[in-house]
Structures are given as C-alpha cells and as structure tokens.
C-alpha cells in the first residue's frame, strides 16, 4: 500500500514537472483553450474567434505585434520560447489558408519584446487593427 502511494506521488510529481513541456499544442490546451476553446473559435463577444483571422493579421506589422501584445499572450505564464511556439502552432492550426507562405515564425526574442508592452485596451486595439486590415484590402472577418 505504501509503495503504491509513493509510486502515485512520484507519477504526480513527474507529470507536474513535465506539464511545462507539453509542446505547443499541449501548452495551448493548458493556457489558451479555456477561453479560445480547443478549436480557436473563442467565446463571442468577449473572446474573439482566431480561426482564419490570425493569418490575415500577421500580414500587417501592427497585426503581428497585436498577437504578441494582447493580454492573454503578453501576460501568459509561458516563457518567451514556449509562447512563440504556441503562436506559431496556432497560425498553422487555426489559419493555415490565410497565413502568408513567406510568414517568418515568431522567435523568443520577438515575443519578449512584444509582451513587454501589453495592450491596455484590447477591444479598441482590435477594432483599429480590423480597420487597418480593411484599408489594406485584407478581409478582417469582422
């Protein structure tokens, strides 16, 4: 009995220690899916749908910056490298058709710079970004 309790405790500690190494999909599920949902569809109107739109956002420098500065990303407990991996994975998972073929993946250094200046008014910033997308002739989807 004592041995199985120790084995269970060891397993729990191992799982806890490796939780931060879940990979980008696992990190997304642990840190982002609670609001953005497993499929990236969000919970309108408070949590926007990421499907398709994030690939269009990265077509503009301000859109690329926006994704790293929104509070959910900027204030995430993930380290810079893991957050960059989640952001890159999200583009492939939720916006494969709209992400430019020449997209340069986010780096840990870029994410560190972006998240050091979190957006204070995300809804306003999103509205401004959608206007910029429209002005550039890019469908913002809402």
TrEMBL record:
The keyword Iron applies. The keyword Endoplasmic reticulum does not apply. Keywords: Heme, Iron, Metal-binding. Signal peptide: none annotated. InterPro entries: Cyt_c-like_dom (IPR009056), Cyt_c-like_dom_sf (IPR036909). Residues 3-114 form the Cytochrome c domain. This is Cytochrome c domain-containing protein. It comes from wastewater metagenome.
């Amino acid at each position: 009995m004592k041995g199985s309790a120790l084995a269970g405790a060891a397993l729990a500690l191992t799982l806890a220690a490796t939780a931060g190494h879940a990979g980008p999909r696992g990190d997304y599920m642990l840190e982002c899916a609670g609001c953005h949902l497993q499929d990236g569809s969000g919970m309108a109107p408070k949590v926007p749908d990421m499907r398709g739109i994030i690939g269009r956002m990265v077509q503009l420098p301000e859109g690329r910056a926006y994704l790293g500065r929104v509070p959910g990303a900027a204030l995430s407990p993930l380290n810079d490298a893991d957050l960059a991996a989640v952001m890159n994975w999200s583009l492939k998972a939720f916006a494969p058709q709209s992400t430019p073929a020449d997209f340069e993946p986010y780096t840990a250094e870029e994410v560190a710079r972006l998240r050091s200046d979190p957006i204070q008014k995300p809804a306003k910033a999103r509205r401004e970004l959608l206007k910029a997308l429209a002005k550039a002739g890019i469908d913002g989807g809402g």
